[in-house]
Write a structure and sequence with these properties.
By secondary structure, the protein is an alpha/beta fold. Helix content is 34%, strand content 18%. A six-stranded mixed sheet has the order 3-2-4-1-5-6.
């Protein structure tokens, strides 16, 4: 089994480091170009048993530009950042010194473990496709980082140690019967600015 993860292309807020949870921002032109560029790499992995995407426009549009026809799954939505929505970590630390989304969660939003529960449901859907299946998931940076950690059986907050660029391609799989990360944060397809 293989699970291909694709993070959405760049948006104005991802470019400036603002927490972008449920705010539905469009892709920037360079984000669209990167999403188109991933198409050939993803197509080479077909056929797909299941293709899922977050219903938020930036992920759904990335999937479409990558040549995919996804089923929209609300469990793939980005972290609900509550009071951190639209703010940078530096801005959050002005009133909450030392704050990190990974350790402190988001006031008025979700904790890492709550996002992890959604990631676990997506993993179960993927695993239900069975041995030999290829599944594609198109979603968001923090959600996919948590999903990668949960794939390995680690805590959701461990996802903080898995950097993930916009339009990155990742592959999760198995080594014998053990879940492994086969490829992570691969942006070789992304056009140079």
């Amino acid at each position: 089994m293989k699970v291909i993860l694709i993070r959405h292309g760049e948006t104005e807020w991802s470019k400036t480091g603002r927490h972008t949870g449920r705010t539905d921002l469009p892709l920037l032109p360079e984000g669209e170009a990167a999403a188109r560029a991933v198409a050939a790499r993803v197509a080479a992995q077909a056929p797909f048993a299941l293709v899922l995407a977050s219903p938020l426009d930036r992920a759904r549009r990335t999937a479409e530009l990558a040549g995919l026809e996804p089923e929209l799954d609300p469990d793939l939505q980005e972290w609900d950042y509550g009071e951190a929505e639209g703010r940078t970590t530096v801005e959050m630390r002005e009133t909450r010194p030392g704050w990190t989304v990974w350790g402190d969660g988001s006031p008025g939003g979700e904790t890492a473990d709550e996002v992890g529960a959604r990631a676990d449901r997506v993993i179960e859907r993927a695993l239900a496709e069975g041995k030999g299946a290829t599944v594609v998931l198109v979603a968001h940076g923090h959600l996919l980082r948590i999903l990668g950690a949960r794939w390995l059986g680690l805590s959701a907050s461990t996802g903080g140690g898995l950097a993930l660029s916009t339009a990155a391609l990742c592959v999760l799989g198995f080594e014998r019967d053990r879940r492994v990360i086969v490829r992570w944060n691969d942006t070789a397809h992304v056009p140079e600015p």
